[in-house]
């Protein structure tokens, strides 16, 4: 079971059910049905080939229960994953930002690329320290 736990007090814990043999159970549905809340964190999805990453990446933009889920339109390859009331993204993946750091960027490429891509889209005074 994979889960994201926010380090700050702004986010709620998203508890996921373990896979069970019960028919029709959705392992990605939160137990308490309460949408997770946003902090200032940025999730960077590192896609390791042949590990189910495409399926998991699609899951991040289509199925995660959030107070403002990603907006996915039919026929578009990318979804808009903005924080509530802001024009900044909470997810850095090919399904939300495209191939901003190159095709199948590895850890080193992402480490060098993500801060510059994300920070270039913000005013200098609004850039978080990383």
From TrEMBL:
GO cellular component, as recorded: membrane
UniProt similarity note: Belongs to the sulfotransferase 6 family.
Pfam hit, one: Sulfotransfer_2
Subcellular location(s) of the protein: Membrane
InterPro entries for this protein: Heparan_SO4-6-sulfoTrfase, P-loop_NTPase, Sulfotransferase
Entry keywords, A to Z: Glycoprotein, Membrane, Signal-anchor, Transferase, Transmembrane, Transmembrane helix
Family annotation (Gene3D superfamilies): P-loop containing nucleotide triphosphate hydrolases
MF terms in GO: heparan sulfate 6-sulfotransferase activity
EC number(s) per entry: 2.8.2.-
Top enzyme class: transferase
Protein name as annotated: Heparan-sulfate 6-O-sulfotransferase
């Amino acid at each position: 079971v994979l889960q994201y736990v926010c380090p700050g007090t702004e986010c709620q814990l998203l508890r996921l059910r373990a896979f069970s043999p019960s028919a029709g159970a959705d392992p990605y549905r939160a137990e308490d049905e309460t949408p997770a809340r946003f902090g200032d964190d940025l999730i960077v999805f590192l896609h390791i080939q042949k590990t189910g990453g495409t399926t998991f990446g699609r899951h991040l933009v289509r199925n995660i229960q959030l107070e403002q889920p990603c907006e996915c339109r039919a026929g578009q390859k990318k979804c808009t994953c903005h924080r509530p009331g802001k024009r900044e993204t909470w997810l850095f993946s090919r399904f939300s930002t495209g191939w901003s750091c190159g095709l199948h960027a590895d850890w080193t490429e992402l480490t060098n690329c993500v801060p510059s891509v994300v920070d270039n889209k913000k005013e200098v005074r609004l850039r978080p320290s990383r």
